[in-house]
Specification:
By secondary structure, the chain is an alpha/beta fold. Helix content is 41%, strand content 16%. Bound molecules: nicotinamide-adenine-dinucleotide and thymidine-5'-diphosphate.
Length: 364
């Protein structure tokens, strides 16, 4: 197959590209990315010279360029990760989110429709979405504890049948793009797949998101801005486990279907932040609790969703997927990676990585 992975230079995308390039030497992997602030080719340095890999600098909203690129590489599989992905940015700039996440997805769908011309034999359009489209769950168990069949902080989970109820401009745009993908399946018979995943963590995540931002701040003894009281709950999954699920769903998922992906691993933000402080301090040889005073409660995020928890039993029952890593091991690996790759982090926080692109593409 010739597989186009959009957003491959971003956080989750680089793990998917790496997995596919290594696992499928017979497939050609085309990483298609606009290289926004969130894209970074340094994330793909270890695969950039591989024979079955190439990079294409493209905006998914640019319909003509996407059509040309699909024809050039004879694309028969699309794994679509390109998106604006940060909730706080979506609150400040909702237009960009609608443009990229909704119109960009529509542009890809329409390009695939035009290039495949109704011949869907061996074709796949796989859209990567988020659990945030389902809205927020109740904290009906605020003291914690494990109710039978429930999570530590509440009894309900998001299933594939949960109605969409997005709250942020980010999740509203992702929800809209999911609807377009289903509409192309139902209207044109396009062989689409969708998965909705919980919060990812691991190497190469842009340091605007909670885990890499806080690891870097603890290292430099900067304040840790905890929104509200830090009571919000997220379900965390190691990014390589998400990439494995994407591989499985792409190859074996039922066309037209949706799969939830999650870790059954709910954490209150404040508890997770304490684990991060303890882990960074231990790995840097600092005394336990030395950096607890960095925790700084700040004004809450507008419309801050209380709790996310994913029921991923369908993926387990139907395709045999489950997370491979315990959270403690995943966090240990993640913290070590950021501490050992300070140059990667500094390149981003200094803005150096953007200058590299500006020069590289200046005269195109
Ligand atoms: P990211 O922000 O780290 O990366 C996004 C990538 O898309 C970047 O490389 C960026 O350059 C590229 N991009 C943005 N706009 C583009 C455009 N117009 N044309 C081409 N490329 C463009 O995002 P991520 O965290 O890796 O998330 C990837 C996907 O997974 C997104 O669709 C997101 O909604 C979804 N998702 C993320 C999480 C998570 O926890 N990070 C969880 C569930 C689902
Ligand atoms: P984030 O990593 O932005 O992911 P999402 O909003 O998609 O879940 O945030 C994870 C949680 O951490 C969320 O409840 C918001 C909170 N948070 C903070 O308290 N402070 C911060 O500086 C950030 C970035 C997030």
């Amino acid at each position: 197959m010739n597989i186009m992975i959009t957003g491959g230079a971003g956080f989750i995308g680089n793990h998917v590209v790496r997995l596919f390039v290594n696992k499928y030497p017979q497939h050609r992997i085309v990483c298609a990315d606009k290289l926004t602030y969130a894209g970074n080719l340094a994330n793909l340095a270890d695969v950039e010279h591989r024979e079955n890999y190439c990079f294409e600098h493209v905006d998914i909203c640019d319909f003509d360029s996407i059509v040309a690129l699909m024809r050039k590489h004879n694309i028969d599989g699309i794994i679509h990760l390109a998106a604006e992905s940060h909730v706080d940015r979506s609150i400040k700039d909702p237009f960009t989110f609608a443009q990229t996440n909704v119109m960009g997805t529509l542009s890809l769908l329409q390009a695939a429709n035009m290039c495949w011309q109704g011949n869907y034999e061996g074709k796949r359009f796989y859209h990567i979405s988020t659990d945030e489209v389902y809205g927020a769950l109740q904290m009906d168990n605020p003291q914690g504890g494990n109710e039978p069949g429930g999570g530590p902080w509440g009894t309900a989970f998001f299933t594939e049948q949960t109605p969409y109820h997005p709250h942020s401009p980010y999740s509203a745009a992702k929800a809209s793009s999911d609807h377009f993908v289903r509409a192309f399946h139902d209207t044109y018979g396009m062989p689409t797949l969708i998965s909705n995943c919980s919060n990812n963590y691991g190497p190469y995540q842009f340091p605007e998101k909670l885990i890499p931002l806080f690891i870097n701040n603890i290292r430099h003894r900067r304040p840790l801005p905890v929104y509200g009281k830090g009571e919000n709950v997220r379900d965390w999954l190691f990014v390589e486990d998400h990439a494995r699920a994407i591989d499985l769903i792409f190859h074996e998922g039922r066309v037209g279907d949706t799969y939830n992906i999650g870790g059954f691993n709910e954490w209150k933000n404040i508890d997770l932040i304490k684990v991060l402080i303890r882990t960074v301090d231990r790995l840097l040889g600092r005394a336990d609790g030395e950096d607890d005073n960095l925790i700084t409660f700040v004004t809450d995020r507008a419309g801050h969703d209380m709790r996310y928890a994913i029921d991923s039993r369908k993926l387990k029952t139907e395709l045999g997927w489950q997370p491979s890593l315990q959270f403690e091991e995943g966090i240990e690996r993640t913290v070590k990676w950021y501490l050992e790759n300070q140059a990667w982090m500094d390149n981003i926080t200094s803005g150096e990585y953007m200058k590299y692109y500006q020069e590289m593409y200046a005269n195109r």
